[in-house]
Amino acid sequence: MPGPKASPLNIQPRDLLLSFCSLLPGEASEHESDLITKDAMLDTNFIRLLVFSIANGFAGLGDVPITSILRFLTRYGNTDTLFGQVLGASPNHVAKSLAENLFKVAIEARQAQVVKYLLDSELLQVNDLVCEAYGQKLTAVERAAQLQDYKTTKVLLDSHADVQKSYASNPKESGPLNCLINRIIPGETIPPDIMALVEILLGAGARIDLSMLERGVGHVRSPILAACLISHFLESHETCAVQDGMLPVIALALEEEQAYDATEQTIGACQRLHHNECLQTPEGKVEWALVQSAKRGHAALAAAAEIGDLQYVQKLFKNRLELVPRDMYVALLLSIEGGHEDIFATLLDAGAHVQVKEHVYLQATPLFAAARQRNASMVRAILDAGDTHMPDDMLSFGAYGSSRMSCVLHEIIEWGDRSIILDYHRAFPGGKVISMGNKGSSNWVMDKDLLAFLVDHNMVHKSVFTELLNSAIRESDTAMIYYLIDSGADPSNSDNLRVAIENPSRSDILVILLDHIPRRARRVPSLGTQAIREAIKLGLSSLKMLDILLASEALDIHCCSDVAGSRSTESPLGTAIKMADEFASDFIIVRRLLQAGCDPNSVVIAYPDHNLTAVLAAVQTKSVGLVKLLLDHGAEVNAPAIRRLFRTPLQAAAESGCLEVVQFLLDNRADVNGLPAKRGGGTALQFAAISGNCNIAVELLKRNANPLMPPSTIRGRWPLEGAAEHCRTDMLAFLLRLNVYDNDHCRRAAKLAKENGHMGCVDFIQEHISQHEEMPLLDAFDMSEEFNWME
């Protein structure tokens, strides 16, 4: 079942119709022409297909959020009437499967009225149903609580939902109350409806243990929630709350007043229920202390320095007031920022440190502040003080309200006074600009004379030239580009190549960069790979720049590089395949890469747990043309499912539910019985069963697919098991009619269906077992003829 989405999409019938049509015999050709152009007929047929998809575990919906389904159906009037008609006209097991899946939709959509209607239909048992979210199985009441849906939770509790039942193995995630508390954002104001939800869950018997209390009280830190949980915990707790560690939870989690009340309540419960026995033991003795601390600073000196009151500063010193170094340091900094040279000199003569000696939360060092004020005498006085050393005073965080990190040397260079620069260099001969940071847009970075001056005095690290090159490229300053490259800038830097690519009107700059990349006997791995991917992502408008990159013999067109915001890596070919549908229909960028030498059999996308070759990535796009292009360029149609490739191309196509790609691969000699991966794999027929696409199953059987071929030894599923596990109702009926699976298969399938809450499938399988109907074996079927599995 598709998981919950943060931003639900709207169902677009025209976009999904062809996907749905491939599920039903004869539908695709029927709908390809006139039907799609007729809105009324489109809606009628789409609803029919949508209902079919819902009954079959949302087969064909892909990534469409299931919450969109009810919104779409409500466009056509009263959903109760529609559901009543559909449920009443369906066989019992189909009606039950349809009701189960509609129920899950209603839970996700927070539609309490629909949930109640379906429960009242008597097709469902509320405690048999299984929801799924964030990769976990949940009971219906757990999911409703997790969604913080009071109305639906109440409907479920009124229908006797079991608040003790859970599929979670982790106790901290077990039960509706845990599911609710775990979703509350720390520090968030808890609205009344959430508190009401907590109350009804507690009233229904939801348990509270100390672990839940620690999270509910300590993590969320809401006095209202804390009081509620603590009260119920004390009322329901059979052992002594003090000895079980209740008091530390209270002390750490609550503010003074709330903590005092909660402690009093806890001790009172101990006295009432356990006659003070716990308080007599060493472990149970209670110590409650409020620790207060105050830091007394010398605000007078700082204030006088800030406003420039020299007379008052002198008075403080005259009275021999004992001033700690920290206070002197703060006052010195404030005098610099205020431009009060007389106070600055007084403080410096009095021994104020110009280098911070302890942790002080200030925005600048004195040296940085003086440079920022462009005060040469103060800068020289600080340098002459002999109290400043590198590198601690070279950084200033968030100086003067800015969020950037700035370096003293950056500031002095920005100032542009070469005599000050030389004085700084004499004081700190090892000082260099090692990174431009956020100063890359400053004027001096494009001043060739000043840059040459800094280079002559060995004040610029070679890495800075590469950063400066970025600015020169942005400014299209060709002369500076040549100068920086000659000075040691790296023309192959990915960020610099990206900036050049983004300006297609100056392709000559990209050529300059590429021409200055040293040629080696072998290409440097990953060199330029990211830049090629960036050019691909810019699309057809950047085709000229892509051609220039591909023509360079220095760049690596094969390597996989990191994908931003993802744990995966992609090669340029992988990026082009993923974006192929956004480009022209002839896949021009993929063609360019293949012509440049990209290997169609290479891994083009690497995830943490599996890899995709070019043809596997193309199969995921469901584009026959793209798959054909790769096969034409030498992609292996029967590449085995080994070494982190968990699918053959045909298996991947069957899993995606794309009939056209399946047929194309079969027509091009794909092995219909290709071996599955050892872990989590499957045959093409097994994946067709899991996807719920009966047309694909029929096509595979026509091409001699073996329905009794064993699945993966680890996490594998026989076709019947896969269909039952994913509620593919019609696929289940189709496979049972083949009459090739014995009762052991059927029982395992029923067990998987039950574990996932598909009780309609369970009923159907059990009915099949009990009837023991004599069905013709597989070899009795003429699969070359049309087989009407809907009957």
UniProtKB/TrEMBL annotation:
List the SMART domains. Answer: ANK (SM00248)
Q: Which Pfam families match?
A: Ank_2
Keywords in alphabetical order: ANK repeat, Repeat
Does the keyword Disulfide bond belong to this entry?
A: no
SUPFAM superfamilies linked: Ankyrin repeat
The UniProt entry annotates ANK repeats at: 610-642, 645-677
User: What InterPro entries does the record point to?
Assistant: Ankyrin_rpt, Ankyrin_rpt-contain_sf
Q: What is this protein called?
A: Uncharacterized protein
